[in-house]
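Note to self: keep these together.
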Amino acid sequence: MATTNTVALNQVGLVIFGLIAFVVAIRWLVSIAKIIDVTSKITTILTKHNKNKNLDDEALTGLIVKMTAAYRENKPFLKLMMTIIKIAGLATFSATAKK
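Structure:
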């Protein structure tokens, strides 16, 4: 006699939730890598100016403009990250509060 296994609805829901979490995590990592890349480029430029002792007002203004542009470019994702972190914190808190 053959037996079959059935899949419960909550198991399907957990698989879908896991896939969504996986996609969000991958997107998160890629975006963090982009932000770190921009930050490291700005840090490298600043280090070169400090090493050469030629950080004049024009160079400093250029760095400020680059930092502001990087922030504005990543602002929507930064807001999304803050929202996800808050949700994850609440989920962690509620999961530990049940125990």
